[in-house]
Design goal:
Elements (H helix, E strand, L loop, with lengths): L10 E3 L7 H8 L2 H8 L19 E3 L7
Antiparallel strand pairs: 1-2
Amino acid sequence: MKVPMKVQRFATVMRLPSEKAAEYRALHSAVWPAVLAAAVTDPCRRPLDTAAEGQWRAPAEEIFHLG
């Protein structure tokens, strides 16, 4: 008998300068395999003030999920 796995979703937020928004979206538009192989979003990101030390992102409560 298979035991169903509980899937927990996590959402995070980060600060993204408006002038980097188009570049960031382009980098993530074709996730497999281009973005994963390159992983070049660091120049676009800025950590949030609420992020843990050494982290880029901060936890966020999932308010809405479609799908």
